[in-house]
Design goal:
Helices cover 26% and strands 47% of the residues. It is α+β, with helices and mostly antiparallel strands and 118 residues long. The model is unreliable at 1-22 (pLDDT under 50).
């Protein structure tokens, strides 16, 4: 019984800290919503919220056909990931308003049509 009394507060703290991470990830994702383009001109992706879940949508033009692929964003251990079959780490620098994908590089927010490359 003593062992259970010691474990319960520890488990409660772990659960509360995990719940806090989800809230922080949600707040961070809300700030990241929008259209992003790679600083070296790679394709654009859009981070949006659909049906209560955040997704990254990428459009690619192949021989005149536009293919659109959407991936869900998840949070694990306080870090954000794009689920593409393997994990792509998603980091946000709010001071510079930049997203870094690892692997994938650095993206800047599309603020006007001049920045937009497809």
């Amino acid at each position: 019984m003593k062992r259970t009394n010691r474990l319960f507060p520890m488990l409660l703290c772990v659960c509360l800290s995990l719940a806090g991470c989800t809230g922080n990830g949600e707040k961070q994702l809300e700030k990241m919503r929008g259209e992003w383009v790679h600083v070296k001109g790679h394709p654009v992706f859009t981070l949006s919220k659909t049906g209560g879940k955040y997704t990254v949508t990428r459009k690619v033009n192949i021989r005149g056909k536009v293919l659109e692929t959407a991936y869900q964003v998840s949070e694990q251990d306080g870090k954000l990931f794009i689920e593409t079959g393997f994990a792509i780490l998603l980091m946000y620098d709010k001071e510079r308003d930049r997203i870094t994908l690892s692997p994938g590089g650095e993206y800047k927010r599309v603020t006007n049509l001049k920045n937009r490359k497809r």
